[in-house]
Amino acid sequence: MSDNGAKFSLVGRMFHISKGSARACFDRVLNAVLSLKDTFYSGPKENERSQSSDRLFVTHGFPDCIGCIDGTLINLSEKPQWMGHDFFSSKTRIRCSCFNNL
Q1: Contact at 8 Å (CB) between 95 and 70?
Q2: SS3 of 4, please?
Q3: For residue range 66-102, what is the model confidence (pLDDT) as tens digits?
Q4: Residue-wise over 26-47: b if at least 16 C-beta within 10 A, else e?
Q5: Phi and psi dihedrals of 61, rounded to 5?
Q6: Residue 17: pLDDT above 90?
Q7: What is the tens place of the pLDDT at every residue in 35-74?
Q8: Percentage helix, strand, coil for the chain under 3-state DSSP, each rounded to 5
Q9: Cα separation, 87 vs 77, whole angstroms
Q10: Rounded Cα distance, 47 and 7, in Å
Q11: For 73, phi and psi rounded to 5 degrees?
Q12: Long-range contacts of the stretch 66-75 (C-beta < 8 A, 24+)
């Protein structure tokens, strides 16, 4: 979510809390997730980022870019219990990103 107050107002109404409380919850969750990134995510190393950036610039003209989202659809084994309808498309798949295998 961006810093768009309207979205926090919508989330607040959905959960019967204020826009400020919705923003505070969002910030807490985001910080919690980011605090675990080194445990659960390993992105490309510096040399890999440099190679990806160079390749994307040469092949597609994107400067300082290490990856692209391509909108690939993948199958899920089951619908998520919480707000599952938001994760599925009309083809009962979820959108994911592809790390620059263009």
Answers
A1: no
A2: coil
A3: 877 666 666 666 666 777 666 666 655 555 545 555 4
A4: eeeeeeeeeeeeeeeeeeeeee
A5: 80, 15
A6: yes
A7: 988 887 777 788 888 988 898 899 888 888 887 766 666 6
A8: 50, 10, 45
A9: 12
A10: 38
A11: -100, 135
A12: 66/100, 67/97, 67/99, 67/100, 68/98, 68/100, 68/102, 69/97, 69/98, 70/97, 70/98, 70/102, 71/95, 72/96, 72/97, 72/98
- Please answer whether residues 52 and 44 qualify as being in contact, where contact means their C-beta atoms are separated by less than 8 angstroms: yes
Whole-angstrom Cα distance, residue 60 to residue 32?
Answer: 35
Give CA–CA dist 47/45, Å, rounded: 6
Residue 7 scores a pLDDT above 50: yes
Element housing 11 (H / E):
helix 5-15
Q: Which amino acid is at 55?
A: R
